[in-house]
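Format notes (please read before filing issues)

Several people have asked whether sequences and structure tokens are stored in separate files. They are not. Every record keeps both together, in the order shown below: the sequence lines, then the token lines. Line labels are part of the format and must not be stripped during preprocessing.
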Amino acid sequence: MEANEKYLHDYSRVAEDIKLGLSIKEIEELHEGAVSKATIQTVRRLLNYQTPNSTFLSEWFYIVNELEAGLSEDKILAKYTGLVTRTTIRMVRRILRNQLY
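Then the structure lines:
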């Protein structure tokens, strides 16, 4: 549960930074490299396109980060036992693959 809270906290901080008009480079520097460029770009896209899929992805942002980091479905399931299902991971992967957010 702590990991979930951390990712949601990181997402909200990045979202606020974007709303303030900071650039990707400025956000990276502000967070001292703790938030990747890919994560910032994903948050920016989610904020620009408020769709049902973007709302869904924002709820599962930590899964998005794990998939971006290259973790397999099985490793994500093991890491977040009881918090996420295989169906959810596959849905997130499908949305990201098809860029339907």
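For reference, the curators noted about this record: Helices lie at 2-19, 24-30, 37-48, 52-59, 61-68, 73-79, 86-98. The two ends are 25 Å apart (CA to CA).
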